Amino acid sequence: MKIVRLDEKTRADILEGLLKRDPNHYPKYEETVQQIVEEVKAKGDEALFAFTEKFDKAAVNEGNIRVTDEEIQEAFQKVDPALFEVMKKSMANIREYHQRQIRQSWFDAKPDGRILGQKITPLESVGVYVPGGKAAYPSTVLMNVIPAKVAGVERIVMVTPPGKDGKVEPVTLTAAHLAGVTEVYRAGGAQAVAALAFGTRSIPRVDKIVGPGNIFVALAKKAVYGHVSIDSIAGPSEILVIADETADPRYVAADLLSQAEHDELASAILVTTSVKLAEAVSKEVDGFLGELSRKAILEKSLENYGYILVADTMEDAIKTANGIASEHLEIVTKDPFEVMTKIRNAGAIFIGPYSSEPLGDYLAGPNHVLPTNGTAKFFSPLGVDDFVKKSSIIYYSREALEKVHQDIELFAASEQLTAHANSIKVRFEQ
Description:
This protein is of the alpha/beta class.
């Protein structure tokens, strides 16, 4: 990996380079995605089935697009029993963590006749996109579905691209059933996102779409936003490790590679105050590259977006971490909890040498759907709040309104909204 001395120019150059990975910076795909979305909106199932055959080489129709209960039961029999038990452990941890996020409606009654409050209501329906085809991501199913279930969403629809045989991966179906998905459809890509957003004869529309996907899925979610809500437009995976001389270089190298293997646009960055650690980590990375299966992807990812940055002080390292606002941030220092208090921007923070990023991906409980591309500066991990909506509650008695009616009328008049003023005024006509 590249070892670079950290300064203001280095920091600025890296930030600029990382932001180029944003899905919004791929306009050449937007026209194609928009055409797919518009065609599904206009033609419904006809377009959905045609695009599924074109892109996934699978023949689907109104009779087979929805996965049956029999297929789900069959899938259960094909999943490794040991993996089945691990998924149940993961589910329990995810559910327990997200149950602590539940917010209650509240009402505040004042002695003068006012009642103010906030009503929390679960969304009625949510669509969960799960990548498929050759790969299976049961952890993605659990992380997207369980918070929705905890929030109280009644209808949870999963879409996932089928294989050429029209089948959905058994482990994906098993995770969906365990987590509480109510409907599963074999459809993927921009066409599936459009179907969820606008509805077709086979797939009724939903209120919100969540879940990761490739550039076409990301841009499709962007295209339908406003017709439905979305979680975010996810970019490539990221990890940043803050470490000092106390860190184990082998651990750090392994953790950097755990995210670099996702794809060639993934980012893996170490910021350290120790030149010795920097050199040792680089050596360990080279060693691991000879052993790991996704070597070509790893090498490309590290070549493009892999850095070992040597900082003069821990304050410089923290400043860089806050500037990059990484999806995953590991802190492996002498006093990691002290460093943690100074972190403002990160999707998930992993503290200490035994809290490596895959722990969060699979088992710990906090959500692994995290903000990317610097959006951790203003976005949060997926959670229960993403699956509820809030309504303000306002009640005034006549006596309470009488005390303030002239104030409201004056305010409305200052904005030349006479009908607003009149709506209050008529209630106090003699």
